[in-house]
Amino acid sequence: MGIRLDEPLHKAVGDRTAKVLHTKLHLETIGDLLRHYPRKYVKRGQLTELSELEPGTEATIVAQITKVSRRPMAARRGQMLTVEVRDAADVPVEVTFFNPRAANALKPGMLGMFAGKVGEYHGRIQLTNPEFEKLDAESEDTDVDSWAGELLPIYPTTSGLSPRMIARCVGMVLDQLDADLADDPLPRPVRARQGLVPLTEAFRRIHRPDDWPQIAVARKRLKWDEALPMQVVLAQRREALKALPAVPRRRVPAGLLDTFDAALPFTLTAGQRQVGEEIEQDLASEHPMHRLLQGDVGSGKTMVALRAMLAVVDAGGQAVMLAPTEVLAQQHHRSIVQMLGASADVPADLFSPDPDAGLDPARKQVKVALLTGSQNAKDRRTNLLDAASGAAGIVIGTHAVIQDHVQFADLGLVVIDEQHRFGVEQRDALRAKGETPPHVLVMTATPIPRTVAMTVFGDLETSILSELPAGRSPIATHVVAAHEHPSHFTRVWERIREEVGAGHQAYVVCPRIGDDVPGNASDASDDGSELVSEPGQLRPPLAVVEVAAKLAEGPLKGLRVGMLHGRMAPDDKDAVMRAYAAHELDVLVATTVIEVGVNVPNATVIVVMDADRFGVSQLHQLRGRVGRGKWAGLCLLVTESPDGAPARERLAAVASTLDGFELSKIDLAIRKEGDVLGATQSGYRSSLRLLSVIDDEDVIRAAREEATPLVEADPTLQGYPVLARTIAVLVDGERAEYLGKT
Ligand code: ADP
Ligand code: MG
Predict the structure, then answer these.
(1) pLDDT at 93
(2) What kind and span of H or E run contains 456?
(3) What residue owns the CA closest to ligand 1's atom 13?
(4) Are 368 and 264 found together in one domain?
(5) Distance between CA atoms of 619 and 660, rounded to whole angstroms?
(6) Could you give the CA distance from residue 491 to residue 171 in angstroms, rounded to a whole number?
């Protein structure tokens, strides 16, 4: 009778050891320990190409100690221990310990594993204070060749707990494990279809591999242990959402939407039409839509959203659009009102809401209300009232405000604009706004790789706008190395002057806001050279306040330069954005408040200062602010980071393609998994050990394909008790709660 995975560790390793494993590594159960996988493996014996050690790298060597000598240290008290080790090829390497206490065990003839940074001292290769593990040939292990070729697992650990000790504990547990573990969470048919080994075998192979292929087989199987539960949870969620009731909002002929379509100054792209039809079908369903709309910057997502909102208003419901920033909410409000033209009911009766307005499916006008955190109390009250009474057919606002305060008369559709991180919890909170759950359309700020769509947004159906509207102008992107080519940097400001001279506008983006007090502009020279630091001098990131002042007095003197950043009063922000949109300003110096969504087609050039401080997707978003009109766009990425630095490569990547999907992959490769999954996915994140959301697209996709029919046939996993239990453990308390809620 073997041990079970969910049993406490002390059953297998004894109380004392169990306690150490718990305090050091938070391991509680047999399963926890078995899922504490090796970080890497070293091959005992041959692994050690001592001759190939390179100074400056981290290395693990396995070698035999040939000499041990102690001598007093010159500068400090105590002794220094110098050990000579040799590998099979008889190459000597010097290992020095400044802390002989740690190395008391070292004796000539002993085989050991040394891991640390490779150094060079007087021309000789040296390891200083490496981690040390004694390797002993188990007595019964007489086959020298297989012993030398054995792969030794190296475990992640903390001080006070050696990898060797972990290996011993794992060994004890493996010895007590049943050959055919009853509690394998992966259903047998799934294993059979996907060619996955049973769990016990996977554990044995990953902890005690005979060769590399065994490790690969084990890792594949164990990745499924992470991917399948995740996809089952998402499939359950999709099923639960599908089962919710919703008010169907069927398309009403000759309503606001038809009027709008008839007045459109352009034709919809094929993608917009197709996604529009998908949404129309979803909205007509008696279950709520949960759709993710992906499209590159400028692909016309807002248009798709507005048409969906009008369809819902036509059908007698209300629609709400949430923007991530106040600037964007204000802009949406402005542009939607503008696009609606005579169909928009604003703002004449804004302060005298018609109490009988109610919801009139036949109405020819729609009131568009704006709700932001900074509104004065009176405006806000009016808008809240309009939302609650149903007088406002469309409500636009920032996430926070709408989530916290707003009640609706009959909320039919929630559009979440330009938001990557709008997690499951927030979507749930919104769903609770209506008596029956509203339809939900999520629009991402940048295209996201499929793996992310299948994980972070795995509970949503996906639509993609793959083409840009016709007549979109090309954008040229250049990296301007301010240090290396001062003349190019001067040219940046000339280019802005040229564009402004031709009747266009420019953005200058800086990473920081800066002091409240504008910088002393009097010392500004004509060429803006003071915006470049002395070579080798570290300076703080450039700030909007200072750069705006310097440009206005220096290289852009005479142009109408405005400023926009997050610390300005919201009314001021709005006023500046309006002025810029109305071409009352030539140049807008801003932080990334303009990153997403801002739409001023007359702007043709964007200069990003300290561009190396921005992420790839961010730069792509920023670049999307130009090239929105009939005129070619220009994006200049100014940097002082040296040629060859990773930051420069990132900038070169952005300059090399306009394809947001391509760039999002590059971005992902740079960012860490945790970032990808986002704060709301903490339950998943902590459960991912082997599975990479970035690299394991094939496993994630296959797991999704297995999970979907499995959950459809057996939503509560009655037939899969071990899988169900695994999921219950995996899904932390918080998460379990909102899963139960749907
Ligand atoms: P994004 O997907 O980045 O949110 P927007 O919805 O802001 O893109 O659209 C960008 C610009 O393209 C807007 O000015 C919008 O009016 C315009 N636009 C949208 N659809 C079309 C189309 N089919 N043809 C021409 N222009 C369009
Ligand atoms: Mg947009």
Answers:
(1) 85
(2) none
(3) 300
(4) yes
(5) 10
(6) 67
- Which two tokens mark 617? 């997707």
Q: Which two tokens stand for residue 731?
A: 């899904």
CA dist., res. 37 & res. 34, Å (int):
7
Q: Which residues, 6 or more positions from 17, have their beta carbon under 8 angstroms from its beta carbon? A: 9, 10, 169
Cβ distance 130 to 113 under 8 Å? no
Predicted confidence (pLDDT) per residue in 561-616, tens digit: 999 998 888 788 888 988 999 999 999 999 987 766 678 999 999 999 999 988 88
303: Cβ below 6 Å to ligand 1?
A: yes
Domain-located, residue 201: no
Is the CB–ligand 1 distance for residue 271 below 6 Å?
no
Give the domain-ending residue among 657, 685, 704. Answer: 657
Scanning the structure block, which residue is given the tokens 């997707």?
617
How many residues are present in the chain? 742
Contact between residue 477 and residue 635 where contact means Cβ atoms under 8 Å apart = yes
The pLDDT assigned to 604 comes to 95
Cα of 463 to ligand 2 centre, how many Å? 15
What's the mean pLDDT in 227-232?
91
User: Is residue 347 included in any domain, yes or no?
Assistant: yes
Q: How many CA atoms lie within 13 A of 327 on its CB side?
A: 26
- The lowest-confidence range among 138-147, 495-504, 595-604 is 138-147
Q: Are residues 505 and 638 in the same domain?
A: yes
Overall domain count for the chain? 4
Nearest ligand, CA of residue 624?
1
Same domain, 130 and 15: no
Ligand 2 centroid vs 418 CA: distance in angstroms?
6
Indicate which atom in ligand 1 lies nearest the CA of residue 601: 14
Query: Alpha helices, DSSP H only, in 502-608?
Result: 544-553, 570-581
Position 477 scores a pLDDT of 95
Pick from 400, 435, 465: which residue ends a domain? 465
Half-sphere exposure of 435 (CA within 13 A, CB side): 7
List the residue whose alpha carbon is closest to atom 18 of ligand 1: 300
Structure tokens at 645: 């630095």
What is the best residue among 260, 292, 303, 416 to mutate for testing ligand 1's pocket, by most ligand atoms within 8 Å of CB?
303
Cα–Cα distance between 619 and 446 in angstroms, integer?
A: 11
Domain of 114: which CATH number? 2.40.50.140
Same domain for 263 and 401, yes or no, is yes
State the pLDDT confidence band at 368, using cuts at 50, 70 and 90.
very high
Distant-in-sequence, close-in-space partners of 54: CB < 8 Å, separation ≥ 6: 118
Q: Is the CB of 674 under 6 A from ligand 1?
A: no
Give 561's strand partners: 587
Please report which ligand is nearest the Cα atom of 628.
1
Task: Please report, for residues 67, 81, 108, 117, the alpha-carbon distance to residue 103 in angstroms, rounded to integers and kept in the order given.
Answer: 13, 8, 12, 17
Q: How many angstroms separate the CA atoms of 673 and 68, rounded? A: 45
Q: How many angstroms does the Cα of residue 304 sit away from the middle of ligand 1?
A: 9
Residue 447 lies in a domain: yes
- The tokens for 556 are 């852009």
Q: For position 649, which CATH number holds? A: 3.40.50.300
Question: What tokens appear for 223 in the block?
Answer: 């990745």
Same domain for 428 and 487?
no
Strand partners, 536: none
What is the pLDDT at residue 74? 66
Same domain, 454 and 486: no
- Do both 551 and 652 map to the same domain? yes
Q: Is residue 29 part of a domain?
A: yes
635 and 587 fall within a common domain: yes
**CB count in 10 Å sphere of residue 657:** 13
Query: Which domain range does residue 284 map to?
Result: 256-465
- Cα 367 to Cα 319, 341, 407: the distances in Å are 11, 12, 16
51 has pLDDT over 60: yes
